[in-house]
Amino acid sequence: MSLPGYTEPAARPGLAALWMLGAICAFSSMAVAGRAVADELDTFEIMMFRSAIGFALVLVIGGALGKLGEVAPRRLGLHFLRNLSHFTGQNLWFYALNLIPLAQLFALEFTSPIWVVLLAALILGERLTAIRLAAVGLGFLGALIVARPGTGGDPVGLLTAAAAAVGFAGAIVTTKLLTRTETTTSILFWLTLMQLGIGLVAAGWDGDIARPPPEIWPWLGIIGAAGLFAHLCLTTALSLAPTTLVVPMDFLRLPAIAVVGAVAYGEPLSLPVFLGAALIFAANYLNIVLSRRGALRAIPGSGKPDL
Of the candidates 285, 274, 251, 304, which has an alpha carbon nearest to the alpha carbon of residue 131? Predict the structure, then answer.
């Protein structure tokens, strides 16, 4: 039964699945490339070169598509807050990359939406219901199972990966505010430009920025291109299918990267990581369903009861 004033967008799950396959490949490629350059560059330098390559790609692709005219110096304070949060999260992610197994890193990264619920309540004033709080608790229980405190895992790597998820959550919340007035091209332009500036300051504070040897430039190219391509794939997939279909596809990143870690680095396939990730997935999916129902209740005549 259709709701008055509401038209369900036509889902194209087949195309969305192809774009999500691209996202999975991009995120996995960035992880492998990040480990390949870790012996030559510190994380600040990796972020600086990644942002430089990304900025060049935005200029070239945005110029070719005639989109650079959308870029305007509006809401620069919010852009800076968003990019500082993302830079911090991504920098911590690269730091944890060599300290813990890839599957563990990706599983903890998936706690970002759980942190978004809490940050959205603080920053955006969104209401925290009992069910949402239960979902948050379920997500954190999953994170504890993934981390398994006291079992001998690298505590610095685990804490760094968890902190990276908080940084990503801050970027998600501020991006939500920016998308009310800014286009994707404008957000990506200021993302790469500002993070290039932050990277230059962070990498050069000691007066010593490493010059990458020729053999790692292809890996840096992968890091820069994969970062932009992954987010393009996710955004496009969400435009082709509902979030309730896209999120389960996104969680396929975990078994995919677990296989990469096992084949390329001999990392064990750990049952607790997958069990904890399943709880994190359940918590995120519950939040998505609640958000979808909340959106439908906001439509006049929907008659949906409050949760």
Answer: 285
